[in-house]
Amino acid sequence: MAKKSVASLQTGSKRLTKAIKMVKSPKSGAYTFVESIMTPEAVNDFFSKK
């Protein structure tokens, strides 16, 4: 599965990252995209979850 950290966002003093993950649906077999905005430290945990 393709995965990539797309953009770095800065709001005030917090540094945030937008991550997009492609997930295959078990019912239809189609791919969907899951987006989340989080701290850079949490990105690896986001991609390791299924």
Automatic annotation (TrEMBL):
Pfam families named among the record's database cross-references: DUF4295
Organism (species): Aquimarina muelleri
Source taxon at top rank: Bacteria
Protein name per UniProt: DUF4295 domain-containing protein
